[in-house]
Amino acid sequence: MNYVDETISKYEKYINPAQAKLFRFMGLGSIEASAEGWTITDSEGRQFIDCLGGYGMFAIGHRNPKVVEAVEKELHGMPMCGKVLFNRPMADLSEALAEITPGDLQYSFFVNSGTESVEGCLKVARLATKRPKFVAADNAFHGKTMGSLTATGRDLYRDPFQPLLNGFSHVPYGDAEALRAVVDEETAAVILEPIQGEGGIIVPPAGYMKEAKAICEAKGALLIADEVQTGIGRTGEWFGVNHDGVTPDLMACAKALGGGVMPIGAIIGTPRAWQGLIEAPFLHTSTFGGNQLACAAGVAAIKFIKEENVLARGREAGEYFIAGLKKIADEFPSVIKEVRGKGMMIGVELTKEGAGGMLMSLMIDKNIIVAYTLNNPKVIRLEPPLIMPKEVIDHVLEVFHDAVAMTASVIEDL
Ligand code: PLP
């Protein structure tokens, strides 16, 4: 058996046979071997342009040299924390986050994934307010562990695991009045994504997060911004909440925070939200959380974004990409319903669910990786590195145009 077949057979035998079948069906029968910038190379030497960006993780590209260098340095010193002495990269990353987050967000606790950062925010909110209830949005995606899954707004993922946590309610996303109607004196926190990612790249009306904050404040509840996908530059600002000029009480951050090299998440809070943890710092702990490798990656990623003007580059690249996609949408209204997004967080809503799988396969056939959003298979999401140059975007647009044209010719049958 060759290397590829051997790998797929191990997937079938030891990981999940259905997943292996699905990958093959989508034309993904190859093994990722190396990556750089916006390119992934498979074990056979075939190169793909990565427009999925690891679900938004690769904001500054794959294997960013500055991040790799910082991680290598720690690797030969103190890669994992001993937990008893002070940890300098963790102190540096906390300071860097306090500087780039809005308002009085100041304290950080580090974890290893997005879902853990959401779990932490929920716990900290309950600790700070001593209240039982949470409000989240329909169609939200906050992760798949028990607490974050309870906040996630899609029954497909939730129902097999019922009963989930008590005290959660969901309201339509983007509707401040619906939120006002349910937030009360028993609400610990409202948790919202500034732009819904897996829900289908849904941009709420301008001012929504600001109104949500005011509604929370009026009832003494906290606002948790889930910035796992939108944070660290994805939308062309450091955080999604910056578009509304609002400071949440708690922020969940992950994905791009590790510079695409290390897994890391952060729970970030204001002094008010953090009070309970200040009184009892060991109420929330993590063995791996805050390790030097991951924190050094975070510090290097933030430095790179600042020094290389990545936010402005991401804004510009995103506008260019969206304009190109809108032209294609105008030409093929039978396939594309809408193009939307901010910065390099872009969604293309299709008229039919079946068109998503076809477009994805056609793009992969031409060596461009895209995928649909987890909660909404009708939306193709494009979350390439913010540093992707115009020539590469032009090529992606050309290939996408042809794939949409081909889909248009069979749309009736999908
Ligand atoms: N929150 C949001 C907004 C996300 O988009 C995701 C993942 O896509 C998560 C939380 C969960 O993150 P993770 O997959 O790292 O657990």
In short:
With 414 residues, the protein is α/β, with parallel strands linked by helices. It has helices at 3-15, 17-25, 53-56, 65-75, 88-100, 114-129, 146-151, 155-158, 176-182, 208-219, 271-279, 292-307, 310-331, 353-365, 390-410, and strands at residues 32-36, 39-42, 47-50, 107-111, 133-137, 168-171, 187-192, 222-226, 250-253, 265-269, 336-342, 345-350, 368-369, 371-372, 379-382.
Commentary on this structure:
This protein is an alpha/beta fold. 43% of the residues lie in helices and 16% in strands. It contains 15 helices and 15 strands. The chain has a seven-stranded mixed sheet with strand order 4-10-9-8-7-5-6, with helices on both faces. The longest helix has 22 residues, at 310-331. The radius of gyration is 21 Å and the shape is globular. The mean pLDDT is 96. Pyridoxal-5'-phosphate binds at residues 55, 113-115, 118, 141-143, 193, 197-198, 226, 228-229, 254.
Secondary structure blueprint with pairings:
Layout (H helix, E strand, L loop, with lengths): L2 H13 L1 H9 L6 E5 L2 E4 L4 E4 L2 H4 L8 H11 L12 H13 L6 E5 L2 H16 L3 E5 L8 H6 L3 H4 L9 E4 L4 H7 L4 E6 L15 H12 L2 E5 L23 E4 L11 E5 L1 H9 L12 H16 L2 H22 L4 E7 L2 E6 L2 H13 L2 E2 L1 E2 L6 E4 L7 H21 L4
Parallel strand pairs: 3-13, 5-6, 5-7, 7-8, 8-9
Antiparallel strand pairs: 1-2, 2-3, 4-10, 9-10, 11-12, 12-15, 14-15
Helix pairs in contact: 1-2, 4-12, 5-12, 6-11, 13-15, 14-15
This protein binds pyridoxal-5'-phosphate.
Pyridoxal-5'-phosphate binds next to helix 6.
